Automatic annotation (TrEMBL):
Name of this chain's protein: ATP synthase subunit b, chloroplastic
Gene Ontology terms, MF aspect: proton-transporting ATP synthase activity, rotational mechanism
Family from the record: Belongs to the ATPase B chain family.
Highest taxon listed in the record's lineage: Eukaryota
Gene this protein is translated from: atpF
Gene Ontology cellular component terms for the protein in this record: chloroplast thylakoid membrane; proton-transporting ATP synthase complex
Function statement: F(1)F(0) ATP synthase produces ATP from ADP in the presence of a proton or sodium gradient. F-type ATPases consist of two structural domains, F(1) containing the extramembraneous catalytic core and F(0) containing the membrane proton channel, linked together by a central stalk and a peripheral stalk. During catalysis, ATP synthesis in the catalytic domain of F(1) is coupled via a rotary mechanism of the central stalk subunits to proton translocation.
Coiled coil: 64-98
Membrane topology: Single-pass membrane protein
Length: 184
């Protein structure tokens, strides 16, 4: 360490400029060389280093600004998505309620329609039964009438003689003649 301090303290001790040579003492030349290199680097590199640091600072600030803008955009998109979600949930609830209401209305309509159809079928059944009863009654009447007519014809044929038969025909013809004169 003594050699290092000697080189700084005893500057006059150095050989004169007339002689040129290499100083092979590493401990004596290193601090001088390093101080010269650092001095040159500081003098010439200060501007470059300041420019590099300013550029780096601007890039960092731009990155921060961009990330803030992206963050604000993401927050806005998140709020929009939440609003859309709330709207869709409300619509889904409304569709669910309307769907249940629609299902109930359709169910009531179906029940009412089925009830009306059953009423119509009941009415058709009753009408058919009534028609069949009337037809059966008419058939019985016709048979009774035919049997009564046959019985009356049999009785008339057995009781009437030709003379009585001619008098009945003449009386009926006379009645028809009188009715014709009245209507004319």
């Amino acid at each position: 360490m003594k050699n290092v301090t000697d080189s700084f303290v005893y500057l006059g001790h150095w050989p004169s400029a007339g002689s040129f040579g290499f100083n092979t003492d590493i401990l004596a030349t290193n601090p001088i060389n390093l101080s010269v290199v650092f001095g040159v680097l500081i003098f010439f590199g200060k501007g470059v280093l300041n420019d590099l640091l300013d550029n780096r600072k601007q890039r960092i600030l731009n990155t921060i600004r961009n990330s803030e803008e992206l963050r604000e955009g993401a927050i806005q998109q998140l709020e929009n998505a939440r609003a859309r979600l709330r709207k869709v949930e409300m619509e889904a609830d409304q569709f669910r309620v309307n769907g249940y209401s629609q299902i109930e209305r359709e169910k009531l309509n179906l029940i009412n329609s089925t009830y009306r159809t059953l009423q119509q079928l009941e009415n058709y059944k009753n009408e058919t039964i009534h028609f069949e009863q009337q037809r059966a009654i008419n058939q019985v009447r016709q048979r009774v009438f035919q049997q009564a007519l046959q019985g009356a014809m049999g009785t008339l044929n057995s009781c009437l003689s030709n003379e009585l038969h001619l008098r009945t025909i003449n009386a009926n013809i006379g009645m028809f003649g009188t009715m014709k004169e009245i209507t004319d």
